[in-house]
Specification:
The chain has helices at 2-26, 33-51, 58-64, 67-92, 102-128. With 133 residues, the protein is mainly α.
């Protein structure tokens, strides 16, 4: 299980962090709320991509049976909903409320982290439910 989580969740997550770091380091300004919102959206996209690997894992298919498709589709829909919330915040958040403080950026980063947690939770649940079909 650890190798699968590393290959399909940890590596894409760290790759996303590296891309974010490159954007922040190469930018002309300090990190701001827009960068945090972009990072959170990237996390939801990474999570949607990682959900596809649920269908390729033989152990999960055995443990979750026909429910693997249901969980996969629900995870993608939940991640799309989180993406919509983040896009809504980006579109409608007033300019004067986009300060680069940690507390201002935290809700966006929590939503992005929650997206990754959904997919990770399905992996863990599938492995923990060893014999339950």
């Amino acid at each position: 299980m650890q190798e699968y989580l590393l290959a399909h969740l940890a590596i894409p997550f760290f790759a996303g962090l590296v891309v974010l770091a490159i954007v922040v380091v190469s930018g002309r300004e300090k990190i701001n709320w827009d960068a945090a919102n972009d990072a959170a959206l990237d996390m939801t996209i990474l999570s949607i991509g990682a959900t596809g690997s649920l269908f390729m894992n033989h152990t999960l298919q055995e443990h979750l049976g026909g429910r693997i498709s249901l969980y996969g589709v629900l995870a993608v829909l939940a991640n799309l909903l989180l993406s919509c919330v983040l896009a809504y915040r980006r579109r409608w958040k007033p300019s004067d409320l986009r300060s680069p403080t940690f507390l201002n950026m935290l809700p966006d980063l929590v939503l992005g982290g929650f997206a990754l947690s959904l997919t990770t939770g399905i992996f863990v649940m599938g492995y923990m439910n060893g014999g339950a079909k």
